[in-house]
Structures are given as structure tokens and as C-alpha cells.
Design goal:
The chain is mostly beta strands. It has a single domain (26-136), classed as Sandwich (Immunoglobulin-like). Helices cover 0% and strands 50% of the residues. The protein is built from no helices and ten strands. The protein has strands at residues 2-8, 14-20, 30-38, 50-51, 56-64, 70-79, 86-91, 98-101, 110-119, 134-138. The chain starts with a strand and ends with a strand. The relative contact order is 0.24. Bound molecules: calcium ion.
Length: 139
């Protein structure tokens, strides 16, 4: 596609400039990681692997969209070895964050967080199972 920009002054003089751009497909958003913050918002770091039951944390998914930006993120969790996927919440405003209390009664099991994003054009990220990026042992 070629964009042509034309300017005309008060005397009728015209100048133009053109520029060629390649048209790409509108891609779905990508979630690259889910950061774990403490209840005050401090990042617990990528190395945290254990969290105590009952602890309050904030889940901070990092998402991007090449074209227009992120409209909404949904956050889910499941306990490894079970089939039930529970929704933690839906956030429709940046920064997309989710307050979460580590569930009780699952000591020794892995907690799996999953997120799914929608861009402002309505395209959804790939199935959220593929966005599974964090696994934590519950103390
Ligand atoms: Ca997009």
C-alpha cells in the first residue's frame, strides 16, 4: 500500500510525499509471563516456587499486542492433577492485575495460573492452556 500525503498552501501551491507500507494481518495478543507480586505490589521474582496457603498475592500478567493494545485479560487457576479450571477474574483496564488468595487444603500440590488476553480489535490470544507459564508448589 502506498500512502500519499499532499499539502496545499494559501496560494494554491501543492507538494506531496508518498510512502510505501506493507499491510500485515492483525495478530492476536500474546501473553509472555505472569508475574507474582506480594500484597503490597512488590515483585516476588521469577524464582519463587513456593507460596503458603492463605497468602494474598497479586497476579500481574504481561501481555502485548502488536497493533492496537490489550483490551481485557482473564485470569484462571487450577490445581495440578485436577480438571477444574476456576476463573480468578476479568480486568478491563490497565494495569491488568488480579488479587488472589492461595487456596487452602492443597499443601504439596502445584498451582497453575493461566491467562487469556483480548486485544482492542476483539482478537483473543491462543487457548489459555498455552499461556500456562507459572507453576507454584503450595507450602
Ligand atoms: Ca492485534
Amino acid at each position: 500500500m502506498k500512502l500519499i500525503i499532499m499539502a496545499t498552501d494559501g496560494a494554491g501551491n501543492v507538494t506531496s510525499l508518498d510512502r510505501t507500507v506493507i499491510i500485515n494481518e492483525n495478530n492476536p495478543p500474546q501473553i509472555t509471563k505472569i508475574q507474582i507480586l506480594d500484597s503490597k505490589g512488590f515483585n516476588l521474582g521469577a524464582m519463587v516456587t513456593q507460596l503458603a496457603e492463605g497468602r494474598q498475592i497479586i497476579l500481574d500478567p504481561v501481555a502485548s499486542d502488536f497493533e492496537t493494545g490489550i483490551d481485557m485479560i482473564r485470569m484462571f487457576y487450577k490445581i495440578e492433577g485436577t480438571e477444574e479450571i476456576r476463573q480468578i477474574g476479568v480486568d478491563e483496564a490497565a494495569p491488568f492485575q488480579f488479587h488472589f488468595k492461595i487456596p487452602s487444603g492443597n499443601v504439596g500440590n502445584k498451582l497453575i495460573f493461566m491467562a487469556k488476553a483480548v486485544d482492542t480489535d476483539g482478537f483473543e490470544s491462543e487457548t489459555f492452556f498455552e499461556q500456562r507459564v507459572c507453576e507454584y508448589n503450595v507450602l
